[in-house]
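U., I forgot to send this yesterday:
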Amino acid sequence: MNKKQIQMSDETAHNNAISIIDALKISGVIEFSICLFFAKLVSYTFLDWLPLYISQTNPGISSSQSAYMTIFFDLGGIIGGISAGYLADKTGASALSCIVMLIFAIPSLGIYYLFGNQSMAMNEALQFIAGIFVNAPYALITTAVSAELGSKVPSKSAMATVSAIIDATGSIGSAIGPSLAGVVSEIGWEYVFIVVMIADLCALLSILRIGFNDCKRLIFIWRTKKSRNNSANQEIISVTTY
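Result:
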């Protein structure tokens, strides 16, 4: 490829680049951006403040021990991210997969607060469970969902713009969450958990429209397959009878 062809290729790519306004008009970009804002707020609040919470609510555990204990929250996040990705690939419903995880994330946070200080083993187990559901939507949105939304536009430059918008919005949440937790924790740790549970609820509500559309699509596919199977069975019966 000569210099002139390279220049023309660059000009074409520039002309095809999607603007931020056009990227925001893509169905789902704003909803998933808001969802990631709240999902990252919760995830980073735990990542930054969980060691301090454990050391303050469990007098027998030192600061270094509490830091090591938080690895179970991260391990849960690994399992949650893989599970959410598999569920999204299996169903083709990313929003619905996130909603399912968020539905379980809210009570898992409350259960961890109520029973996490019973014993070290209980704390680690409930951390692991909470990590699965808290980190799964965050992992799914920043990867598969961003690529899926970016691919809705023919322009090759859309994917990077859409991913940047979603991730940047989430990064705002990751900055606000720990800062807010620092202020709220002075009142009481129970209020920190109330804040993160409300944040997960807001994340869930923000993608309800897309999740509802996913449900309608899955029901339509299921009914179509069922009707085809019934038609095939009727043909077999008629042939056998004949």
